[in-house]
């Protein structure tokens, strides 16, 4: 089975040319983040991903995690891999040195995460959730909570989860029923059940720190009455070590379509009277704190999507180069050729590659904007970058997950009948990718967030500001010479006009029927994604042209220009269909909804 090859050169190019890593490293707090160090980190992360994690991917899929006598067992090799992962310092990349972290930029963490997820997404989910849990505690916890939990989470000694969903509530968190009652000892006792808890129980770490949404007695109805609690699997003793087991029971592990090695648990709290929990932040502000974790996780899911797409593409490319079948078109010979020489197979591979390049560039650009939003010295720049991040996160998550599924499907198509056979491996990527459109809010929820909060929330100001940023960047790229740059920038200007027109249509439609913006929301998100991907590919093309002036023979740079042109010709035109669906199709959805009610 083909091994995973970390795309180090692609990652370094995007970090340098698109995410402007030199500027990120110059921000306060990143003094130790030098290019040579980051290059070494990428190389070592790539080795760990390809040599340790990737070989376990198939094992995890076939063996899966299992619940035996109330103990969750991860697949063979998992515990040793996690031990080496934690000992290697990979859990600590982004955190403050005060808690044992390495203090690296988020954009570097995003680049490294891609390699974990491409090599073995089921494994990568555990440290990703631990990182987000630590982030919430670092921002909302008391000094005592930080002292007790952060160092252990950062070092990977303990892992973290997020507990939101309940069977009767689903994505509607206003319907959460788990109860938290204050006890005399200063803690709370929780009762209730949570479902779909990724790594809710496992055997990788000595403790699991659950962040649980629950209601206190007398709390307001709806989302305004939800609080957030730290509920450890083992209650820490006076020395901070795992002590008495908490009143938490793993009811079952879900049987899933994919990511079989990731234990997705149903957890019951308080079967014996109440699970001990500690309030995180203030009462009734739990959803506010959880959204810190949620937004990090949404970006992370976008990374998972294009990471699996990259792995699927690599598998398809190798197969296409090795599989001999049929005669070449226009070749005057009776000899058979590798299928990559068949035009339609070549088209599929090229379309896959340009989509992956666009998703990666948009994600790392967004991560760099997050770094600027946190560390920039000027408040105005911090706010401007945070506004941009707020717009881009649902696009990175929603659009990338839709495209990631598309790419995984195309990879299976390249393999043909072998793609449908489990032993070939492409089917696993196809199954694993499917969760990304559902995790941390479905694509429809991301689209509704983009329309409700980011567009209608302030009458379009946030979105218009983001569109202006894209326009300025495209204008800057257009200053480069060359026929292909002219083509790219012309197509982008036309697509931006469609995006602006769709934005104004949605704003106007809300005055006629409040359902219309949400009937249009999916296509609006996909329109934004197509344009945002084109924006980043324009930046890629501009960087490739600049670099080719010094390195005209470097094939990698010509491949980047080819990928950008492919995106503009194959993917960006979908913006036309999305615009048409918004302005001419949304009322049909509203009519159907009225008929169904």
3D structure, described in words:
With 597 residues, this protein is of the alpha+beta class. It has a domain at 8-151: Acyl-CoA dehydrogenase/oxidase, N-terminal domain (Butyryl-Coa Dehydrogenase, subunit A, domain 1, Orthogonal Bundle). The chain is built from 17 helices and 14 strands. Strands 3, 4, 5, 6, 7, 10, 11 and 12 form an 8-stranded mixed beta sheet that branches. The chain has a two-stranded antiparallel sheet with strand order 1-2. A two-stranded antiparallel ribbon has the order 8-9. The longest helix has 37 residues, at 286-322. It is globular and about 80 Å long. It starts with 7 loop residues before the first helix and ends with a helix. The model has no long low-confidence stretch (mean pLDDT 94).
Compact description:
By secondary structure, this protein is α+β, with helices and mostly antiparallel strands. It contains 17 helices and 14 strands. The longest helix has 37 residues.
What is the fold named in CATH at topology level of one domain?
Butyryl-Coa Dehydrogenase, subunit A, domain 1
Residue windows where pLDDT falls under 50 for at least 5 positions: none
Q: How would you classify the helix and strand content by structural class?
A: alpha+beta
Largest sheet: 8 strands, mixed
CATH class of one domain: Mainly Alpha
What's the alpha carbon Rg, rounded to whole Å?
24 Å
Distance between the termini: 51 Å
Shape, please? globular
Number of helices: 17
CATH superfamily membership of one domain, which one? Acyl-CoA dehydrogenase/oxidase, N-terminal domain
Mean pLDDT comes to 94
The number of E-state strands comes to: 14
Roughly how much helix do the residues carry, as a percent range? Answer: 55-70%
Beta-strand share of residues: 5-15%
